[in-house]
Amino acid sequence: MKKLPTWFFATAAIFALCGMIWGIQMSASHDHTLSPAHGHLNLIGFVSMSIFGTYYALTPMAAESRLAVVHFGLGFVTVVVLTPGIALAIADQSEALAQIGSVLAVISMALFAFVILRHGVGSTESHPFQDHEGRPKPAE
């Protein structure tokens, strides 16, 4: 599925633009109070989503799975919940969104690990723990 990697990359680019604009605003105002939230927007919103998109572009079989679509949604929601959650926690208003966003981030990464173990990496590898005929690989 070519569209899923595109969604990951497009979303990553939008999050990066938001992070850059936010960084310029912080610099212009000389107020870096929310820099942890800005950092998480860039790290999870741009870096992680870009890595996920790269994986799915390299592994089309994984991109065609329902788990990949769930992974995209979960990654997106993680950024949208975690970033303002950190800002609210810094402002001593509430830590609930930051906590929920952190749990979502862990679940998103665990799902990514599961998808990698299930599909391997690359277009020719069907499963990392099986040979090309579907039999388990012998222990080395």
| Total number of strands | 0
Mean pLDDT: 91
Order of helices and strands: HHHHH
Tell me the distance between the termini: 34 Å
Radius of gyration: 18 Å
The class by helix and strand makeup works out as mainly alpha
Characterize the overall form.
elongated
Low-confidence stretches: none
**Helix content range:** over 70%
Count of alpha and pi helical runs: 5
Q: What amount of the residues lies in strands?
A: under 5%
What does the main sheet amount to? none
Structure description:
By secondary structure, this protein is mainly alpha-helical. Helix content is about 75%, strand content about 0%. It has helices at about 5-30, 35-60, 60-65, 65-90, 95-120. Helix 1 runs parallel beside helix 4. The longest helix is centred in the N-terminal third of the chain and has 27 residues, at about 5-30. About 30% of the residues are buried.
SSE layout:
Elements: H1 3-29, H2 35-58, H3 60-63, H4 66-90, H5 96-119
Helix pairs in contact: 1-2, 1-4, 2-4, 4-5
Q: Which labels suit this protein?
A:
mainly alpha, single chain, 0% strand
Task: Describe the structure concisely for a colleague.
The chain is an all-alpha fold and 140 residues long. It has helices at 3-29, 35-58, 60-63, 66-90, 96-119.
